[in-house]
Specification:
single chain; globular; disordered N terminus
Length: 181
């Protein structure tokens, strides 16, 4: 059981923010994103901090997220996140997870996603996801297993890239906006 399901937390948050109610998925369009807001989000070195608590106020950890330009700057941006346990839970289920997502282009689409998870006592998991947005493929590898390739239709975001892009969405009327991930 994962007490710290970072991926689930961010996916749920993105779903709630987008108000998805069983609408058919459609690719996110440029006119649904406020270009100026997106430019501000990716303009410098931004750090976000979220304290994670169970209901009732018991703090169980922290999520730190940083958005910064890659070097050289025209080669995209990196969304880096660290999830760390805190409080009494850390004795029973220590968590120290690292996430790194490279995004590129006008719509800040992910091209590479790296995960290093250290959860529980001695449990370590690594994952690598590579996105070929033009060719319509996602390649995925867990630990030292063989790389798997999956065909995709349209563009695809992951939980971190979709979480960040939702901050720049133009909410017009009561239309649902889907960020495919």
């Amino acid at each position: 059981m994962r007490l710290f399901s970072t991926i689930g937390l961010l996916s749920l948050l993105a779903t709630v923010l987008l108000g998805v109610r069983g609408a058919p998925a459609a690719e996110l369009q440029r006119n649904e994103v406020v270009k100026e807001t997106l430019e501000i989000i990716y303009s410098g070195d931004e750090t976000l901090h979220y304290a994670v608590s169970w209901s009732g106020g018991v703090k169980i950890g922290d999520i730190y997220m940083q958005i910064r330009a890659q070097q050289p700057p025209d080669s995209g941006h990196v969304i880096a996140a660290k999830v760390k346990d805190d409080g009494p839970l850390s004795v029973f289920y220590p968590v120290d997870d690292q996430f790194r997502c490279v995004v590129e282009g006008a719509m800040k689409l992910p091209t590479r996603y790296e995960v290093e998870q250290k959860e529980g006592h001695g449990r370590e998991t690594t994952r690598l996801t590579e996105y070929d947005q033009v060719g319509g493929e996602v390649r995925y590898q867990k630990n030292k297993e063989e790389m798997q390739t999956f065909p995709v239709t349209g563009t695809v975001y992951n939980e971190f890239a979709s979480f960040v892009i939702t901050r720049a969405l133009s909410y017009i009327g009561k239309l649902d906006i889907i960020v495919a991930s």
